[in-house]
Amino acid sequence: SGSNSNIERELDRAVDSIIREIENTIRNKYKIKDKIYRLEKEIENTDLLLDKLTEHELLIIESRYGGRMGKKISYEEIENLIPMGKSTIQRKHQEIVNYLMNETK
User: Is-contact 64 73, C-beta < 8 A?
Assistant: First the structure.
C-alpha cells in the first residue's frame, strides 16, 4: 500500500503539472489573440487615416516607405512622379508624418 500511495502522489503531481501547463497555454493563447486584435484595430485605424490623404500625399508616403511598390524611392524620383519640387515634397512628407503621428496618439 506504501507503493500505491507513492505512485498516486507521482500521478497527482504529473496531472497537476499538466493542468498548470494547459492553463498557461490557454492564458498565452488569449494574450496572443488580444495582441492580434489590437494590431488589427491599429491597421484598420491606419487604413482609415491613409484613406483621408490625397492621391499625391499617399504617393509621397508610399514612395518613401516602400508601400505598394515595395521599394523606397528618393525625393528626386518622387519629383518625377508628381508635379512638385523636391523641397515641397519634403515639406509635404513632414506634414503628413506629423499629421499621422498626431492622429494615432
Answer: yes
Exposure of 74 in the CB half-sphere (CA atoms within 13 A)? 3
Give 2-43 pLDDT, tens digit per residue.
567 888 999 999 999 999 999 999 999 999 999 999 999 999
Closest by CA to 46, choosing from 66, 63, 61, 32, is: 61
Residue 36 neighbours by CB distance under 10 Å: 10
Question: What's the alpha-carbon Rg for the chain, to the nearest Å?
Answer: 27
pTM of whole model > 0.85? no
Q: Are 33 and 41 in contact (CB under 8 A)?
A: no
Q: What's the rounded Cα separation, in Å, for the pair 105 and 94? A: 17
